[in-house]
Amino acid sequence: SDDDFLTRWDGKGWCDIVIKLQVGANIGISCAVTNIIYNLHAILKADSVLPDLSSWTKIVKDLVISLFTPVMIMGFSYLLQVFRYGIARYNGCQNLLSPTWITTILYTMWMLIWSFVGAVYATLVLFVFYKKRKDVRDILHCTNSGLNLTRFARLLVFCFIIILVMFPFSIYTFVQDLQQVDGHYSFKNTHSSTIWNTIIKFDPGRPIYNIWLYVLMSYLVFLIFGLGSDALDMYSKFLRSIKLGFVLDLWKTFVDKNKEKRVGKLLTKLSSGKEFHNPFSTDSENYISTYTENYSPCAGTPISQAHFYVDYRIPDDLGRSQNKSRKNLFASKETDDI
């Protein structure tokens, strides 16, 4: 990145690998997100029995959607390379492709296609989720998806964010590529042995935003998945496995102490305020002296000053009262018969 970057290491070996990974990643991100959103749609729709996660059908389908197109494009990129690679200032290794129609067909349009497919499935997932929003928890459990509502929501948010980034970016890249199409393709001229091994070093004058876009998405992935409960449990197990569990214990002790301090301050504030007056409270001594003198088990239930009916009768008193009522009832019937 210094002024003398033209005389620095030319990146042979490293850049040969990186440019292929960049080409694959440009399409691979859209393919992977589309595969995730496709599976979420299949789970929510639940119109057929889902294949087992370890079944070959499931594995092959996921691999085809996620890897087939990126690997194919990585292979085709050799046909499109004008130079072995280039090095851009502040941006590193770059793939220099032929500005012809074949580049659009074999490379640029696939990013747009998969981003569009992902956007369509994302819309379908939103529709099905809204339609079955009351049953989502049960659907996730009954389909043996291995997801709970939190994990499902985290995946859904992640997919939507990536699609909202990649879909406009793929449209922009596709339009820009169409504007640069010029001339016809010739493999012989494109792979001329006289210029193939020439390492082009150039200063584009501005950042190449797709490089930094991936850095931003990497941080985004960590924020969404790296701070969840599952990830934190994994970090905890790893630290304890390398005998650093005491760090977690110290942190837990620190958090507990702060929690106790906050609770103590809250209780202090509450106790220093005005005493709370309960409108339903009664003077127990006056109440007892008032109602226990004339209390009889057979008498009516005494009433507190708060206008609550309180039944002080024990089960034996209640039984005797009921027996006495029955005897009086039978006696009155016999009198009527006579």
From TrEMBL:
Keyword Transmembrane recorded? yes
Which InterPro entries did the record assign? GPCR_STE3
Task: Mention any one GO cellular component term assigned to this protein in its UniProt record.
Answer: plasma membrane
What Pfam families does the record point to? STE3
Q: What keywords is this UniProt entry annotated with?
A: G-protein coupled receptor, Membrane, Pheromone response, Receptor, Transducer, Transmembrane, Transmembrane helix
Q: How does it sit in the membrane?
A: Multi-pass membrane protein
Q: Name one GO molecular function term.
A: mating-type factor pheromone receptor activity
Q: Does the keyword Nucleotide-binding apply?
A: no
Entry's transmembrane regions:
63-87, 107-130, 155-175, 211-232
- GO aspect biological process, one term: pheromone-dependent signal transduction involved in conjugation with cellular fusion
Q: Which residues form a coiled coil?
A: none
| Compartments where found | Membrane
Family annotation (PANTHER family): PHEROMONE A FACTOR RECEPTOR
Family named by the database record? Belongs to the G-protein coupled receptor 4 family.
What is the protein name stated in its UniProt record? Answer: Alpha-pheromone receptor
To which species is this protein native? Saccharomyces paradoxus (Yeast)
Lineage runs: Eukaryota, Fungi, Dikarya, Ascomycota, Saccharomycotina
Supply the gene name: STE3
